Amino acid sequence: MNIKACIFDLDGVIVDTAKYHFIAWREIALQLGFEFTEQHNERLKGVSRMRSLDILLEVGGISLNATTKEVLAEQKNLNYLTYVLQITPNEILPGAKEFLLEIKKLGIKTALGSASKNAVTILNRLEITNLFDAIVDGTMVTKAKPDPEIFLKGAEMVNVNPANCIVFEDAEAGIEAAIAAGMKCVGVGSPEFLWNANWIIPDFKTLSLAKLYENI
Ligand code: B16
Ligand code: MG
């Protein structure tokens, strides 16, 4: 395969925001009167804000109308933003920035493909917005992962054929989206949830373009 673009998920790949999503959602669950655990939180990775709320309500066995759901989703986001607005560049996951710099230097296009509507705020906090040739976030798509729309849009924006793109993902929904887009996918994290990926890495610490070519 000739790699011409790398498309990165944000939450769980570039930065560990899952812990902030978890705290913010848990506050909503407590408010509704039930316990939301870290294990439940695994199901929220990579899925949209509204879908996350639906899963949370399913865990609590609660059914609410659309207006109340809008209010709760907004409230969760305000909780979440109090943490996100404190993020510093130190929170970039080990090796991620170095890998981005390496591939850019070698002429490979870089794109972000995140379900988060807060993606640009987070990239700005991390001071790495300028390392991406294209940014696709949750405000720019109509269909959430596992639909391939996010990644196909990223490929189009950097003008690269999907067959020449590699996606880096930490969530099952994201891996499915990459496969549906006709792209190769590297799972970042624990093999337990990423068995569908073409190759799994624990993190970016020792990754190089040469290693990627050897394994993909
Ligand atoms: P927001 P990613 C996803 O980001 C998160 O993994 C997921 O847990 C979250 O619900 C979703 O963004 C929406 O986030 O509420 O900030 O719009 O992994 O696709 O970068
Ligand atoms: Mg993710």
Describe the structure.
- The structure is a single chain.
- With 216 residues, the chain is α/β, with parallel strands linked by helices.
- It folds into 2 domains: 5-15 and 93-215, Rossmann fold, CATH 3.40.50; 18-84, Orthogonal Bundle (DNA polymerase, domain 1).
- The protein has helices spanning 18-32, 38-42, 49-60, 66-84, 96-105, 119-126, 149-157, 172-180, 191-194, 209-215, and strands spanning 5-8, 109-113, 134-136, 165-169, 184-188, 199-201.
- A 6-stranded parallel β-sheet has the order 3-2-1-4-5-6.
- Helix 1 (18-32) packs across helix 4.
- It is globular.
- The model has no long low-confidence stretch (mean pLDDT 96).
- The structure holds 1,6-di-O-phosphono-beta-D-glucopyranose and magnesium ion.
- Magnesium ion (MG) binds next to loops.
- 1,6-di-O-phosphono-beta-D-glucopyranose (B16) binds at residues 9-12, 21, 44-49, 52, 77, 114-118, 138, 171.
DSSP helical segment count? 10
| Biggest sheet: strand arrangement | 3-2-1-4-5-6
CATH topology of the largest domain: Rossmann fold
Q: Provide the list of bound ligands, each named once.
A: 1,6-di-O-phosphono-beta-D-glucopyranose, magnesium ion
Q: What's the CATH superfamily of the largest domain, by name?
A: HAD superfamily/HAD-like
Distance between the termini: 8 Å
